[in-house]
Automatic annotation (TrEMBL):
InterPro entries: ARM-type_fold (IPR016024), eIF3k (IPR009374), Transl_init_fac_sub12_N_euk (IPR016020). GO terms for molecular function: ribosome binding; translation initiation factor activity. One of its GO terms (biological process) is regulation of translational initiation. It comes from Fragilariopsis cylindrus CCMP1102. The lineage of its organism: Eukaryota, Sar, Stramenopiles, Ochrophyta, Bacillariophyta. GO terms for cellular component: eukaryotic translation initiation factor 3 complex. This is ARM repeat-containing protein.
Length: 233
């Protein structure tokens, strides 16, 4: 397999069945992480975790950029894969966590996981510079990452709230008022958008709570709801 060829998911799955932590899998798993970043492969947590485990066995061969890339890929699965971040973080040496680009990526994941969306975007905007010239991180960040994350944030809000102020939603998504009409295109959880309110699709959870988001309401409620959803999956 050449440097430019990326393994298909089916091939990676076959390696996982035979022995996920075989050190001989390292180059293939690295290539599949790159494929995910380029949009040429679907997200595969088990394969990404296996690569980091192999790095534990062979620390001298570990690629620092791959640690950050695996974290970025799991971040884009928000809110459904929040538990992935925790599992992955245990496999990243402390010295790597404290160095760039992992340090800033971890800040982003923590802010996102805590539903501190406005602060999240401020940190997210610095990722392109801290990731340097890594072409795979650049491809991921310059591609559909922002829209994917906006969809995830809307999904997270809809877990608890039936409606929210439009200006608050736009701030959480790092969008201006001119983009309000596109919210229904970004996420299927948005039912409608009026002059000042975003209404989410009714669910058992957001109806039974009867909540309308207001300024000053803690996002802890959302974080707790997300934890319950992940636990029951």
């Amino acid at each position: 397999m050449s440097d430019e060829e990326k393994p298909p998911r089916e091939f990676v799955e076959s390696l996982m069945l035979k022995g996920p932590y075989k050190t001989s899998n390292q180059s293939t798993l690295e290539a599949y992480v790159e494929a995910q970043a380029l949009g040429e492969g679907s997200y595969y947590f088990e394969a990404n975790k296996a690569l980091l485990k192999i790095y534990q066995f062979l620390p001298k061969t570990a690629d620092t950029n791959k640690f950050a890339l695996v974290l970025l890929l799991s971040m884009l699965e928000f809110p459904s894969a929040s538990v992935d971040w925790l599992a992955i973080s245990y496999l990243i040496p402390e010295r790597i966590q404290k160095s760039e680009p992992c340090s800033t990526v971890l800040q982003c994941t923590n802010l996102l996981d805590g539903c501190e969306f406005v602060e999240f975007w401020k940190t997210f905007d610095t990722l392109s510079s801290v990731c340097g010239e890594d072409k795979y991180a650049k491809a991921l960040l310059d591609g559909s990452a922002k829209k994917t994350l906006q969809n995830g944030i809307l999904q997270a809000m809809s877990l608890t709230y039936r409606s929210a102020r439009l200006d608050t939603v736009l701030a959480n998504l790092n969008m201006d008022s001119s983009s309000a009409s596109s919210l229904t295109e970004i996420s299927s959880c948005v039912e409608s958008v009026s002059a000042d309110t975003v209404t989410f699709i009714a669910t058992t959870d957001n109806i039974k709570r009867g909540r309308v988001f207001q300024e000053g309401v803690s996002y802890g409620a959302i974080a707790n709801m997300m934890s319950n959803v992940v636990t029951t999956e």
